[in-house]
Design goal:
alpha/beta; Carbamate kinase; two-stranded antiparallel ribbon; 9 strands
């Protein structure tokens, strides 16, 4: 679609289940993210990444499993995993001569006028310097995302807020199921992908179970889509593949594409 190809500032959200393969962080996935993002930046686009993964890397480092952890324990594992996550991203982007910057946020940063103004000024300078902002919720000091009813819902909500407040032209939500379906594609062979706003009727969408690491699920993505499109921002919900970004910008994405009304 021409509108997607013309997007200059792009926010893309990477969930934990994209980064974790068989309970271990996939350096191949992170390397692919860095390669694709760097390529688009070299083509003149401004790229902002909202990445989960701190809890996943923390549980891997501590030899734990994600099931049954209290919120406090998830916060503790996030404090272990956050630096590991940045280290992997840093190594991957360095191969493409790109510098990364870490931004750990809570809802306060968006609700407080002074804090939001400061954040926008920081983002403006990072964009000028061609630095890659890597944003995550500050789990060790805030349980909003880790709470199943949290404000950010596995960073989908955070990504939509980032897209809104930083004037993005496009929001991309990567998912391990390839898009938003009317039924759970893992359980229903007749599941059809939802590809327009008119079909985003929550009463008709089967949300299914939340994934092993994620806390938001499809419901959080639907909410994020609505928030972004209400602000005039197109949203793509798709699987992460080695050519995901080029496919999106060239109109070849197989996922759900939602344009503002």
């Amino acid at each position: 679609m021409k509108r997607l190809s013309k997007a200059k500032r792009v926010v893309l959200k990477v969930g934990t289940n994209i980064l974790m393969k068989q309970d271990k962080v996939s350096t191949e996935v992170i390397a692919s993210i860095a390669e694709q993002v760097s390529g688009e930046m070299n083509n003149g686009k401004e790229m902002i990444i909202v990445s989960s993964g701190a809890v996943g890397l923390g549980t891997e480092k501590l030899g734990m499993k994600p099931e049954g952890m209290s919120v406090a324990l998830q916060q503790a594992t996030a404090s272990v995993g956050q630096s590991l996550l940045m280290r992997e991203y840093g190594k991957a982007f360095a191969k493409h001569d790109k510098i990364i910057a870490q931004l750990l946020l809570t809802s306060y940063n968006f609700q407080n006028k002074r804090s939001l103004e400061d954040l926008k000024n920081v983002m403006k300078e990072l964009m000028k310097k061609k630095v890659v902002p890597l944003i995550n919720e500050n789990d060790p000091v805030s349980s909003e995302e880790l709470d199943a009813e949290g404000h950010f819902d596995d960073n989908d909500g955070l990504a939509s807020l980032v897209a809104k407040e930083f004037d993005a032209d496009l929001l991309i939500l990567f998912t391990d199921v390839g898009g938003i379906y009317n039924e759970n594609p893992r359980e229903c062979t007749n599941a059809k992908i939802v590809g327009c706003l008119e079909d985003l009727d929550e009463s008709k969408i089967h949300f299914g179970k939340k994934s092993r690491y994620g806390v938001g699920g499809i419901k959080a993505k639907v909410t994020a889509v609505k928030r972004a499109t209400n602000e005039g921002i197109p949203v793509v919900v798709c699987a992460f593949e080695k050519d995901s970004l080029s496919n999106i910008f060239n109109g070849g994405s197989k996922g759900s594409v939602f344009l503002p009304r």
